[in-house]
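This week, work through this protein record:
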Amino acid sequence: MAALVKGVRGAVRPLLPVAQIWDLDARRWVRALRRSPLKVVFPSGQMVERRRAPGKQPRKAVSEATPHEPRQKQPPQMSPSETPVTWEESGLRYDKAFSGDRRLSSVMTIVKSRPFREKKGKILLEGRRLIADALKAGAVPKVFFFSRLEYIKELPVDKLKGVSLIKVKFEDIKDWSDLVTPQGIMGIFAKPDHVKMTYPKTQLHHSLPLLLICDNLRDPGNLGTILRSAAGAGCSKVLLTKGCVDAWEPKVLRAGMGAHFQVPIINNLEWEAVPNYLPPDTRVHVADNCGLYAQAQMSNKASDHGRVCDRRFLKIHKYDDEVVEEDLETGASKDWLPDVEVQSYDLDWTEEPAAVVIGGETHGVSLESLQLAESTGGKRLLIPVVPGVDSLNSAMAASILLFEGKRQLRVRAEHLSRDRSYH
């Protein structure tokens, strides 16, 4: 019996590899036949007929039906990212991008790198309203990334000709965006030139002889808020000195809420070049961030307040240590420290074209700003605060001063109008 079982095992063993080989060949044969539109015959003898798509003929039948007609060349196949799609009402074309598209990586490069923005002269704008404001002001678009075609159709068609339009997945835009709720459209623009921009007529109509100079402002949120206040107050121009955060950084753009395209902004200026951008006879006033004005006002010693601010200025800017120690011991400032008169912010300081300097919260105003204020007959403008409060936020101080300047100019204009009507 054992011998019989052994013999049976010996007889069955060779069949396994044969069955495996046959099964493997059968699979290869079936895979090859899948390309045929006719019939599939399996090793068991079963025959399955595959139906063709309606209107589709076999290649052989087509060649026999038209033996004398030349065969038309098929257009070359294009990858999905290179296949343009059009919409009839505008005649514009757009591409569909997939993950790994190299064009998408340029977006993050622009966002993260200020040297790249300055070298290539390109900026990134996000959101339908900001992009619409930019186009209206004359900014030149280069590329648009969007997740829905409706977002592009909302933009002026004449502004989109010659612009690369790329449709991407919303998830990709969400990964790039810093917004809590991304709007599904981003655009790469040429860096705007304030000379070539077309600002709103209403903004130009309400423009005032009032300028803003930003001195070493490094917080993007503060700068964006300040630009928004400058546009709201009717400033004729905003100057940014070297050391300030880039005005075209995405966080500044987001906080500015379109102010970049409502008021001219001149970026990255040396202090020596600042007077070239000021109207004739402009007086430059400095926002004093020394919060001890309340104590000085209570004691009616404005000169004491000036000495306190000078002492603090020397400490913050860390000039020559021996000079600082000497000044702190004597309580007097050296001749090289500009002598700028202290004045409350609500007293009249707009009798001439005025410029206001706003300093950063960390270092305050610079020595150069005080020197410019002294040379133009400007003042230190103080905003009273409660004792114990060091200073106001830079954006808040700028808003208070700019709208106070607007109030003073409006009151002066009303007085002039009454005098003319009286005479």
Observations:
- The chain has a mean pLDDT of 77.
- DSSP finds 16 helices and 15 strands in the chain.
- The chain has two domains: 82-190, 201-414.
